[in-house]
Amino acid sequence: MIDVKHLTKYYGRTLAVDDISFHIDAGSVVGFLGPNGAGKSTTLRILTCFMPATSGSATIAGYDVFKQSLQIRGMVGYMPENVPLYPEMRVREYLMFRAALRGMKSKQRSLAVDRAAEKCWLVKPEDMMRRRIDQLSRGYRQRVGLADCLLHDPKVLVLDEPTIGLDPAQVREMRNLIRSLGEEHTVILSSHILAEVEQLCGKLIIISGGKIVAQGTPDELRRQVSGPSRVIVELRGGQAEQMAKAVADVDGVRDVQHSRAGNWTRLTVQGAEDADLRQDVADLVAAKGYHLRELRREIGSLEDFFVQMTYEQITRD
Amino acid sequence: MRKVLILAKRELSAYFYSPMAYVIAALFLLMVGVIFLWGVRVPFLKIELEPVFRSGAESTLRPLFDVLAYGLAVVVPLLTMRLVAEEFRSGTIETLMTAPVTDAAVILGKFLGAFVMYLFLLVATGIFFTLVVVFGKPDWGVAGMGYLGMVLLGGAYISVGLFASTLTRHQLVAGLIGIAILAFFTSGLYLVVLTVPAEYAQSVAKLNMITYFADFSRGVFDTRGLVFFLTVTAFFLFISVKVLESRRWR
Fold this sequence. Notes:
The structure holds two protein chains of two kinds. By secondary structure, chain A is α/β, with parallel strands linked by helices. Chain A is 37% helix and 29% strand. In chain A, strand 7, helix 6 (168-181) and strand 8 (186-191) form a beta-alpha-beta unit. Chain A is elongated. Chain A starts with a strand and ends with a helix. Chain B has one domain. Chain B is 78% helix and 2% strand. Chain A binds chain B through residues 11-12, 45, 48-52, 70, 73-74, 76, 78, 80, 82, 84-89, 97-98, 100-103, 148, and chain B through 2-3, 6-7, 10, 13-14, 17-18, 90-95, 97-102, 247-250.
């Protein structure tokens, strides 16, 4: 559905997006994740034909973003960050205007507006569609912006920070809405909040400093995080080196490191991928008669990974 | 073309949603009314204009139009400064330019919206013309040419103001740039003519919008004036589109 190859964007001399490539399948919900200023918005703006890239190529459903921009704009719904709207217009009037801009005939327009308004829960309270946009709360503005994107039933929805500035209840609503939209549309959204993207998206693309630092399903990423499995053991009852050596001899153990933790010795045991060494280590400890205080398998959280990835990138620059 | 009309309609309604249009219309009509009934006298600038509406005067709006040609150089940029600058300031440019509309359609739509607004103002001066008709015997040819001149002049002014509005995200700056450009093309050129070498003076003088307008207000239809105003309008619309496009390469 969406193919991006070696996309690079300079703002003047500032490099905003640095040679990124990715592919998005039709019908998936994809999250762009990255700290502020990572290049998420820039990438989305290029995909929605708001600005061209400095180099590289991007296609949506086979149309080139640079050369066939009008076709792309006709089938993409884009909600920019902070949802800019004309403050003096009324909700219905605004949506009718947007539908007309999308080339809909007047009958069809009215239907499309009603349908989108219903999807985005703009029909309650009853006078909502007649209110002036500058009198709406943040949550309702966001819904108007989203309804605008849905008017023409786009194949691709691009939402830049769709939940920023919403209160927790609204965030949950917006999430449910996006999830339900993901059933019919290809959705790309950006966020700097991991938990949100992790719940919503089938695929994550983590961007930092204009580069893609990791991409994949949340599970794939999680596996990358933990890497080979690790077991942490704290025990006493022998010389630290001896105990480390004994544990190292257990089948499947690749590496053991020891450190002191008060009167106890802490061993960090590296095993093969996916291996769970807890049972083997426990058996050994029992056989040797050591005292055991702690035995746990460590799985890195995606959070750690995200922070580590983006932090590494920042410190490298 | 349909999208141009849709954009023009939104632009026009935006004028009436904001107090700006009413304030400008009130100012404009006040200006017209003062000139019409009392005339203008600014001794230190040696401007002395009898009231347009007085017994014994020719029954025409011509002196009024001649002053308005200068006055509009200030009023029109106030009317157009919002057009594109505000889209940039509020960020709506992003939703606008990611909808399936071309840059040219956006510029034309905005031009048309402002132009219709301007025509409303012009129609409102009909009140004064009615008075002239009731109390005198106007020369309809002069009146018609006067209004045609005002329409053409307005189109050119609006395209300049629109161009100024594409240059910045600050309305006020856009307004000032517009006024500056128009001041140059109306009054400033008189000074330029005096300072450039004689062989260029004539060509420079030909750029002055007022000289072409003066023909119309005298009741003379001159195709040079027609071509001049249409060219100026087209030229500024064209560079407005180019400036809007250039945003993509910055």
